[in-house]
Design the sequence.
């Protein structure tokens, strides 16, 4: 009987099985940010166990609220900063070098096929785009990960989602994943890995694959996962070229991290994307999804383009293509947060930042910002935001605020008209 | 050290209660668990539920529906229950990270089928519902007025070991 990729990664990292069904895995990466890590650090200090299992496998960033907005967030940043220095963690990204965790860590080449990674952040599932098992955890799991380099999981089963057909022009990875979540429901993939397969995924860039995997958690999934291929190798090449004689050699090695043809799945879904329209959420749950055409005309107050879902260069390019030469409607304000400094510079070089600024957008530093309603664009009561983020819970971007999730292209079109708009109709 | 389980029940009769509702993001800037205490369930709007009311203050158990604790991975959600002395949650199902966080903190996230949750909710007609938990016997006993009902539940040996150890840090530290 064949194995899924997730099962292969579990086998290769199994450290202990304290009880049947519970697998303790060794970790290749423990990722940290300033919101969930300081409490773990404080607890380790309190327990007199202020140690790290391997400083090279721990990667740290201040991304949720940088630069600090008040004394409390400054204290969180300080705790994280001092801890990273104390343990001489080489890969620590402070203000000026920092970006949204799930964008900056892949960009630095930290995630490789076959890796295990955890982070005190639910969207850690993003890193599965590289053929890794990456799961969001709470602070206690993070704490044990930092101290011991292990994490316990129930072995997840896998849902295979085959994306077939041809993606219509103006329809993007974000539209596909919103549609998939609507099919699965918000807990349709609980304790499961969502494996994205099929020609559509093979044609996608790493950025688009990350957008897919990013939202696996919105269907309850432990991780999203894609099979490593030449696109993966190309993306990682500058980081791995010393390890391999050629790209072909790298690919041959990474192909051990693909599911077997006779692997057993919990469920297989076949989706033909050829008839898919741009999608948007309408309620307070990410599975409340409709085609944009059915929501067209809904007024909004703010546009937010950025986040770990859609703040990458490709996303900014898509939005800029729609915005070029246009202005943001008088009734709305637009905010764009490039996800990392590298993306920001690239967007500057390509003239994308100018397009945004000419259109009347506010360009912020790389940060999570408004996404979780902590800074840079918190909504007032009854305000509505068109966002490229991943969560539309009641109050997510500010108490009493409403969020509609959509692609960067739809968000840009919405900025121009002030009402939810299919970019293809402009 | 094992925590105390059971107590008066409070009912949150809705599915998909998320961690933003349990503890809003703006309080994630707190670096101690205790500082979270007053903000429990602050953003949850549910008919008949008052986050500042006495029922919640006196509760030891929360009873809810499907996919409890979905959304953000913040362990602040179990912590805000912990510092409010709610160490037991009973629901039809949980989001994975929340459930694991509960056991990692040495707390109990009990899963019961919908019919059992329906019965527990119906029990309120007889008055305040008190829950007693027998972890070894994997049973809960619910009493309201002179009505008493018992329900058995499943808990994995690992989760039980975490509860007995007082949490994952203690368990892992002793073993790895
Ligand atoms: S961008 Fe939003 S969803 Fe992504 S890590 Fe930051 S807060 Fe979380």
Sequence:
């Amino acid at each position: 009987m064949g194995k899924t990729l997730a099962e292969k990664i579990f086998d290769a990292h199994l450290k202990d099985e304290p009880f049947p069904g519970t697998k303790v895995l060794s970790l290749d990466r423990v990722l940290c940010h300033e919101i969930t890590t300081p409490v773990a650090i404080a607890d380790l200090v309190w327990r007199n166990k202020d140690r790290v299992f391997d400083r090279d496998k721990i990667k740290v960033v201040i991304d949720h609220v940088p630069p600090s907005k008040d004394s409390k967030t400054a204290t969180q940043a300080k705790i994280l900063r001092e801890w990273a220095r104390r343990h001489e963690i080489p890969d620590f990204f402070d203000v000026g070098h920092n970006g949204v965790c799930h964008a900056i860590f892949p960009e630095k080449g930290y995630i490789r096929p076959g890796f295990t990674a955890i982070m005190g952040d639910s969207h850690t599932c993003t890193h599965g785009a590289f053929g890794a098992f990456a799961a969001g955890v709470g602070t206690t799991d993070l704490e044990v990960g930092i101290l011991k380099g292990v994490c316990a999981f129930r072995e997840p089963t896998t849902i295979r989602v085959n994306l077939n057909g041809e993606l219509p022009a103006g329809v993007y990875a974000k539209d596909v994943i919103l549609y998939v979540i609507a099919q699965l429901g918000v807990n349709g993939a609980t304790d499961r890995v969502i494996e994205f397969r099929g020609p559509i995924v093979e044609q996608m860039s790493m950025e688009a694959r990350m957008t897919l995997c990013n939202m696996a958690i919105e269907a309850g999934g432990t991780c999203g996962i894609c099979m490593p291929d030449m696109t993966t190798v190309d993306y990682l090449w500058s980081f791995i070229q010393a390890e391999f004689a050629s790209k072909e050699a790298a690919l041959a090695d990474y192909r051990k991290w693909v599911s077997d043809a006779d692997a057993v799945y919990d469920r297989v879904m076949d989706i033909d994307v050829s008839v898919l329209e741009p999608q948007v959420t309408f309620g307070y749950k990410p599975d409340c999804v409709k085609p944009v055409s059915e929501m067209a005309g809904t007024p909004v107050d703010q546009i937010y383009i950025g986040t770990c879902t859609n703040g990458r260069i490709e996303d900014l390019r898509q939005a800029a293509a729609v915005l070029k030469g246009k202005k943001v409607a008088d009734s709305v304000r637009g905010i764009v947060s490039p996800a990392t400094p590298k993306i920001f510079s690239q967007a500057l070089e390509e003239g994308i930042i100018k397009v945004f600024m000419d259109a009347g957008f506010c360009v912020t530093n790389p940060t999570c910002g408004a996404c979780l309603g902590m800074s840079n664009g918190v909504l007032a009561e009854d305000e509505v935001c068109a966002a490229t983020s991943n969560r539309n819970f009641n109050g997510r971007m500010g108490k009493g605020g409403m969020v509609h999730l959509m692609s960067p292209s739809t968000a840009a079109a919405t900025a121009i008209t002030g009402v939810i708009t299919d970019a293809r109709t402009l | 050290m094992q925590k105390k389980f059971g107590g008066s029940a409070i009912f949150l009769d809705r599915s998909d209660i998320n961690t933003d509702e349990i503890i809003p993001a703006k309080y994630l800037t707190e670096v101690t668990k205790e500082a979270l205490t007053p903000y429990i369930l602050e953003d949850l709007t549910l008919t008949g539920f008052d986050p500042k009311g006495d029922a919640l203050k006196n509760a030891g158990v929360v009873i809810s529906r499907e996919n409890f604790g979905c959304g953000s991975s913040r362990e602040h959600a179990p912590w805000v229950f912990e510092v409010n002395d709610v160490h037991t949650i009973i629901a039809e199902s949980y989001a994975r990270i929340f459930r694991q966080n509960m056991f990692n903190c040495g707390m109990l996230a009990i899963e019961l089928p919908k019919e059992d949750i329906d019965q527990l909710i119906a029990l309120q007609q007889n008055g305040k519902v008190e829950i007693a938990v027998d972890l070894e016997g994997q049973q809960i006993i619910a009493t309201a007025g002179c009505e008493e009902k018992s329900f058995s539940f499943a808990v994995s040996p690992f989760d039980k070991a975490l509860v007995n150890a007082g949490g994952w840090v203690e368990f892992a530290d002793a073993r790895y």
User: Anything to note?
Assistant: The longest helix of chain A spans residues 71-86. Chain A has a mean pLDDT of 97.
